[in-house]
Design goal:
Blueprint (H helix, E strand, L loop, with lengths): L1 H11 L4 E2 L2 H8 L12 E3 L4 H14 L3 E4 L18 E4 L6 E5 L4 E5 L4 H10 L2 E2 L12 H6 L7 H4 L6 E7 L5 E4 L12 H5 L8 E8 L1 E2 L3 E9 L2 H15 L3 E8 H10 L13 E9 L3 H17 L5 E4 L3 H12 L1 H8 L2 E2 L2 E3 L5 H15 L4 E7 L4 E7 L6 H4 L3 H14 L24 H14 L12
Parallel strand pairs: 2-4, 3-4
Antiparallel strand pairs: 1-2, 5-6, 6-10, 7-11, 8-9, 8-10, 12-14, 12-15, 13-14, 13-18, 16-19, 17-19, 18-19
Helix pairs in contact: 1-3, 8-10, 9-12, 13-15
Length: 468
């Protein structure tokens, strides 16, 4: 192993190959602090060519590779196992924006670019890069693409896969595939780009990408909507899509208990309604015509929904600061959960038409089996993605309640499967769900995935123990 580490140091510089326990620590702990892996070293290459050199060395010495971006994932996909044999390959130094083409509406960036910096660079070029996540100040584009991240604007713009036109990838053999083509149409064989996006670093290492840009909206309008049920929220979604079409860019569902947690742990958050309602929606419109047109769209759809009894009440932001204050309610839910204590998280997706029935059915089963359980349900209703999280009763210590995690996961995931959904909507499978997925994917599907992995990475060196 010492010979391998020395070879890595020679390839990219001794200062960029970390081996001390203190230097390794930030790269080995998962984002939620539940798990700490072990690695032989952390390498921090600064170019695609250096990545390729390191991968060739890993092939030569048969050293497993764990690619890592911002290490903000939630399924143990970017941390090594306990064997201590893997090299963590951090891409944070690959952080250059290579080219912006305003006319083609594209931006070429390296994998280690922080998402927020990419958003700002697009803004400076008078364009919009619409991917928006809670971790956007620390997550990287490579990680976003490797997990096919979604976020709050999927309803209008799609997942990371839809926002990417081309990739640069280092293969498991250390070859560099230059697929950085800013083309919307290219029917010249298999779509290798889509193969690597969402593969969580198990098939190759994404080192750069061509991203889609969009015109900046002229006006953004935000409203917080109170509703009596998830079914009413779905009715309101249908109405808003009919009336606002592509202007609808955000539609976030939150249960009453979500807001209760935010009020409890962030009492400075500006109040919304005089009374409590079972469900809430944070609605955002992005208009490319005019501010008056955006105002008319929003006012008309809310007025109609109130008249039809679909919506119980509404708060409309009249300024950017008020809009930001409304978004704080949504953005602070995960933070409030963490302060409240441990909970059992589920990142799921469902056909939009079946969400209300799933929530009603699963809530009832959990409450019957675990009296006093508290359900933290929120997510991107417009694309069917829910964060369906289960907190224990207030009179039971967290560690005691977490003893039920496997049984609760089984109940929730079995219901997701029964309602034709997926047990991973945004965060991927990583190591956390790779065994769980065997219950829900067919043998044929798993076999096809395994054959792809074997063909591209026959020595199983690329992020082993993840996904498959």
């Amino acid at each position: 192993m010492n010979t391998f580490i020395e070879a890595c140091q020679e390839a990219i510089g001794t200062e960029h190959v970390l081996t001390s326990a203190e230097d390794l620590a930030p790269y080995l702990r998962d984002q939620r602090g539940r798990y700490i892996g072990v690695a032989c070293a952390v390498a921090r290459p600064g170019t695609t060519e250096e990545v390729a050199q390191l991968v060739k060395l890993c092939q030569q010495y048969r050293v497993p590779i764990v690619p890592q971006g911002g290490n903000t994932g939630l399924v143990l996909g970017s941390v090594p196992d306990q064997s201590g044999t893997a090299l963590v390959l951090s891409l944070r130094r690959l952080n250059r924006i290579r080219h912006i083409d305003p006319l083609n509406q594209t931006m070429t960036v390296e994998a280690g670019c922080i998402l927020q910096n990419v958003q700002q660079a697009a803004h400076d070029a008078k364009r919009l890069f619409p991917l928006s996540l809670g971790a956007e100040g620390s997550c990287t584009i490579g990680g976003n693409l490797s997990s096919n991240a979604g976020g709050t604007a999927v309803l209008r713009y799609g997942n990371s896969r839809e926002l990417c036109l081309g990739l640069e990838v280092v293969t498991p053999q250390g070859d560099i595939w230059d697929g950085l083509r800013g083309l919307r149409k290219d029917n010249t064989g298999y779509d290798l780009r889509d193969l690597y996006i969402g593969a969580e670093g198990t098939l190759g290492i994404i080192t750069a990408a061509v991203l889609k840009l969009f015109p900046q909206p002229v006006a953004i309008r935000t409203a917080f909507i109170a509703l009596e049920s998830v079914d009413h929220a779905l009715q309101f979604l249908t109405l808003t899509q009919q009336r606002c079409s592509a202007a609808l860019t955000g539609f976030e569902l939150m249960s009453s208990f979500c807001l209760e947690l935010v009020r409890r742990h962030f009492p400075e958050t500006p109040p919304l309604f005089a009374q409590t309602y079972p469900q809430y929606v944070l609605l955002e419109l992005s208009d490319h015509e005019s501010e008056s047109h955006a105002n008319t769209l929003l006012e008309t759809v809310i007025a109609h929904a109130l008249q039809e009894g679909i919506v119980a009440d509404a708060v409309v932001a009249s300024s950017l600061s008020q809009s930001s204050a409304l978004w704080q309610w949504r953005e602070r839910i995960p933070l409030a959960q963490a302060i409240e204590g441990k909970n059992i998280k589920h990142d799921i997706s469902l056909p939009i038409s079946r969400i209300a029935d799933f929530v009603c059915d699963t809530d009832a089963q959990l409450k019957q089996r675990y009296p006093g359980v508290r359900l933290v349900t929120f997510g991107h209703l417009g694309d069917g993605n829910l964060h369906y999280n289960v907190a224990g009763p207030t009179d039971i210590p967290d560690h005691r309640f977490l003893e039920n995690q496997q049984a609760i996961n089984r109940l929730v995931h079995d219901n997701v499967h029964a309602y034709d959904g997926s047990i991973s909507a945004e965060h991927g499978l990583g190591a956390l769900k790779r065994e769980e997925i065997l219950r829900y994917k067919s043998p044929v599907e798993m076999q096809l995935m395994g054959q792809i992995k074997q063909a591209l990475d026959p020595h199983n060196l690329m992020n082993p123990g993840k996904v498959l």
